[in-house]
Give the backbone structure.
Amino acid sequence: MGLIGAAFGIGFIIGPAIGGLLGQSSYSLPGYAAAVLSFAALLLAFFKLPESLKSTADGKAIASFIHDFWQPVKRAVRTPNLARLLLIYFLVIFAFASMQVTFPLYTQETFGFDVKQNGYIFAFVGILGIIFQGGLIGRMSKFFGDGPLAMLGTALCMVGLAFLPFAKTVPVLLIFMALLGIGTGLNTPTLTSLVSLSTEEASQGSVLGVSRSVAMLARMLGPLWGGWLYGACGKSWPYWTAGGVLLMAVLIGWPLWRGK
């Protein structure tokens, strides 16, 4: 999970940097570039991604999928530990997404940043994510455990987002963004690992699918909430409320601090 997170972090470095460069000439180019890359990923998945199910199980899996599309969701919601993890995962992604959509507006208004400079800031966050997810998370997980690391990462994200509006200089802004990058590097792979290990091996794929659906829902609602707050209440409110959302996640996940 850490290596997958590191791959995401590499994309989080390269993507904003390329988007920032392309966006200087046209705001449409980053969207077209993202579409081309997504299509390339689709082709790779179709032709190169091996099927994990045995051929004898394919028919049963497809029939089960058609018979009850919502069965994995129902099963996840009815499993107390798994439902708690999915709720925490939703709150973490929701808070991060509400920041992503408003951050370029915030830095432009506060520091006069343009597209290129915002791309560098997100690349900075991505570098920290790679360091922790790709190089340190495995060793830290063996020593501290996934649960405590997930909650520590969530707490760091909470502090980084809640106090970000108080940053009046670029160095202080980078400190809070560093907390966000480190926190994301800690909680993303550990939460995903906890979700996958909360069910039997045969159901891990469907459970991870439910977790990705939860993440997509959070990425849809987070920008709506953050963008509305930015326009209706002011530039600081998306970050204060994101900090409050993550405080809820920390409280809900309190048993995880003790590895439960």
